Amino acid sequence: MAAHTESPGQRGGDAGERIAERLREEILRGDLDPGTRIRQEELAERFGASRVPVREAIRILVHEGLVTTVANSGSWVSRLTLPECEEVYLMRERLEPLLLGFSAPHLTEDDFTRLESLAARVSEASAAADVDGFLRFDREFHLTTYAHARTQQLGDLISKLWNTTAPYRRAYVATWSPELRRLADDEHNILIQTLRDGDFQEAERVLAGHIRRTRRQLSKHPEIFGA
Predict the structure, then answer these.
(1) What SUPFAM superfamilies would the database entry show (predicted)?
(2) Each residue of 131-144: b (16+ CB within 10 Å) or e?
(3) Which pLDDT band holds residue 3 (cuts at 50, 70, 90)?
(4) CA geometry: angle at 184 spanning 181 and 187, to 5°?
């Protein structure tokens, strides 16, 4: 992978954002496994940057839940135990329907067209056993349903919760049977229809069940967490 040279105008924030973006992609894509050590000197050499933007990139990723830093020890790609992951999913199960409730009344016809397109892409990726495609389109699908929520903290918190479970969701999706793939497709389509119908309370219930099912299925795969 070619290194990028830092120009004077990129020092600090801009270069830090650029480095964070590259590392974020690698973590979410599964190129960097949970527990991988993040070494500032290696990043500085790789990106042709000083320590300042590297530290800023790590700070950004810590805030997003993708990296964990321990004082006087270093930084690592965040990792979870099975009980920790279950706790995150319990939080999502309760908080994401709330976020959906804020957004749902403001969804437009263009949003529904996009949701239907994304649901089709999720289904196609799933049928092709394209885990990367499934995860990318599935995330975009759900974030689109939340796009009109105007919150001070909830949206950022949910994004962080998604990030912390990303490596385990990737491993779990790779184990799916055709039945589980069809069930996920059905739940997406039911969610779209309840939102279109304006039955927002039912949409929140469908979403909670969608997340709950994943939590229960994950608990059947302790090997994903090294257990």
Answers:
(1) GntR ligand-binding domain-like, Winged helix' DNA-binding domain
(2) beebbbbbbebbbb
(3) very low
(4) 150
What pLDDT, in 10s, does the model give residues 57-76? 999 999 999 999 998 899 99
The letter for the amino acid at 26 is E
pLDDT at res. 227: 54
Domains of the chain are 8-77 (1.10.10.10), 82-225 (1.20.120.530)
The pTM (predicted TM-score) of the whole model is 0.84
Q: How many CA atoms lie within 13 A of 136 on its CB side?
A: 11
SS3 for 172-208 is HHCCCCHHHHHHHHHHHHHHHHHHHCCCHHHHHHHHH
C-alpha 104: how far from its chain's center? 20
Structure-token pair, residue 63: 């805030």
Q: CB count, 10 Å around CB of 153?
A: 7
What is the reported pLDDT for 174?
87
Residue 31: DSSP 8-state: S
The strands making up 67-70's β-sheet, listed across from edge to edge, are 37-38, 74-77, 67-70
Half-sphere exposure of 114 (CA within 13 A, CB side): 15
The whole-angstrom separation of Cα 57 and Cα 191 is 36
Extract the tokens encoding 53: 């933007």
